[in-house]
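Late entry, evening session. Most of the bench is empty. Finally got around to the prediction I had been postponing all week. Sequence below, unchanged from the version circulated by S.P.
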Amino acid sequence: MTLSRREFIKMSGAAVLWLSGPGYASARAVSIPVLVYHDIVQPSKDKEKQKPERETLTPPLFAAELEWLYEAGYRAISLNDLEKTPVEQMRRAVIITFDDGYASFMDYVFPLLVQYGMKATINVIGKHMGSYVRGNDPRLSWDECRFLRSSGLVDIGCHTFDLHTMQAGRAWTSSLAALNEKLRDDLGRFQSLYTREMGQPATILAWPYGMHDSRSIEIATQAGFHFLLNSNNRSFIQGAGHTDIPRFTMQGKDALTRFREVIEERV
């Protein structure tokens, strides 16, 4: 018997989700799971070449998650859809985001978005555009970002211009006040570059390491950002403000059953 790719996924990984028990959306509130992914990488037989980041997923696992969403009647909407979609149409909505701007998005994510008719946002780091980070992590180019946006399925957001480094990460966690001093200039540099390359300012910002405070939010909104994304691992409540949007961090070690729990989590 010959199986299509989708049939194989349904008989393997995605089928696990259906066997884990019935799930029903609560009518108490309309909450929308916002997911954050990072890199999608084929597993390597050479352990020394395996990526150590716990947020990395394999293509089969990510494909299985989208297959389950599709079969369960969920649809992935954009952040902009939050403001123009009636509340009653949000009960089976999810938002998919990617951080860091990995080039693997073109290879493994975008083809699936096209196949399933789902939307996503990828938040890029201005300094890393079109480069190789650490010599082995290719990042998207501006040409690729323009192509992705032209599809109508992908929005391009900001992950700062150059505040997403290990050194900056330690500073974020030790002194937000010190980083806020650099934030205004960093976001200004990003917006200038983004506007030149994409024709208009960015409106979406994902905080590096999820770290921010009220001063960070003030600086970001003054820089023109409308949707501010954190990593608080809870669902977004429809009707809440857009300057503190929580996201669930998706990891490669997570079982598919946990993915279903995240999607069907309701307040």
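Two things to note before I forget:
Residues 39 and 56 are 5 Å apart (CA to CA).
The chain has one domain: 5-263.
Will write this up properly tomorrow.
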